[in-house]
């Protein structure tokens, strides 16, 4: 509960960029709040800890705070190791991705056999 004439400041959370130069300031007056409009907050891009690994691809380019993307085994010739599947990654406020890359494997090439004798 806010008190009469109490001042509040609104700003963007960590991982978000405020478009305005200054934070929004509000004053509580007789049960209402008066002041500047709320700030416009835009998510910051993630730029490290992307999914990686042999055969792993992802759709994480350009991802921003709180957005998700998928890492999978979509490189030609690669499949998931048993028990693995596509994995979801989330862009964290500090600019890093959280998630676990799937384990991918390349199928063993069939050995070429000579004629039977």
TrEMBL record:
Annotated protein name in UniProt: Sushi domain-containing protein
Organism of provenance: Effrenium voratum
């Amino acid at each position: 509960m806010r008190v009469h004439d109490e001042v509040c400041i609104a700003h963007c959370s960590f991982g978000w960029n405020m478009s305005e130069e200054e934070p929004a300031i509000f004053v509580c007056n007789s049960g209402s709040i008066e002041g500047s409009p709320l700030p416009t907050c835009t998510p910051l891009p993630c730029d490290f800890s992307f999914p990686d690994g042999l055969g792993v691809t992802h759709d994480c380019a350009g991802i921003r705070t709180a957005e998700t993307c998928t890492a999978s085994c979509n490189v030609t010739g690669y499949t998931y190791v048993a028990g693995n599947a596509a994995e979801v990654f989330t862009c964290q406020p500090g600019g890093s991705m959280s998630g676990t890359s799937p384990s991918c494997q390349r199928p063993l090439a069939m050995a070429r056999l000579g004629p039977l004798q």
